Amino acid sequence: MRRLDFFPTPYPDECLYSIFCRYFVRSGSTSNKKTIFELFGEAQSLASFVYLPRRLELVDEWAGTGSLITRECLADSNSCYGYFSIAFTERMLREMEEKIVTGGSNRSLERQMIQKCRRSHWPEYLRYCPECTKEDSESFGEAYWHRLPQLPGVEYCPKHGKAIQNSSVHLKETTMRFLPASHALCRLDEKEEPGRRLYKGKYLMIAKDSEWLLANGRRLNGCREVARKYKELFMEKDLTTAQGIRYTERIKSEFIKYHGEDFLSRLFRMAKIHYTGWSLPL
């Protein structure tokens, strides 16, 4: 495929899908299919770019060699790689880091990433903070899709404390279509369900932790190191035997006691799993 004539400069916390949407608008194209072929040289599903740093081998074709837009910048600042990498095996993490450095193609790794990231847990709609959207329009002249509101459990913006809203864009619609936030967010909602407001403090903690993982998760070295750290903390709190065998029922009991059963039911219902099984993979 030939090099693009231009590529939009990524905005803070903007997901890759949003960058591609802005390219689509600026190119003047009216054909989603044509723009997909311009970007990827072949048919390509777009939905996973809301979350994952895929097709990084094409960055030089998108932005040009020597550009400040690099594979590492896009992976770190414009995808949810840091957040999801804590679930990666040592081999997946090593292959992904190699891909970021060398720009090599690895379709098998990309399929594994999608499987690991449990697409069934993603919110049904692209989401936004109304206050962030207003600020983006004032600062950059347009709205764009942020990474953080798309993550499961992020119900409030940690910066503004505003309730995260569903847009009109269903995630399934993003599979083969470019749906820019500047078009979709002409009218902003500020709804706040009473049940959600009741747990605002807990949701804000999740949002802040998710934000931290986006920025720092890559340095945690994958699921084995994360599991090891959890086991250390369980031992400190007498939730394992001296040999490190977990007291599963005691862990569940402490988990429910800390968070509250009603909040956990709400939180894990959104993720379509049951909260009592969260620690089993550890």
From TrEMBL:
Organism lineage: Bacteria, Bacillati, Bacillota, Clostridia, Eubacteriales
Domain TniQ, residue spans: 6-161
Protein name as annotated: TniQ domain-containing protein
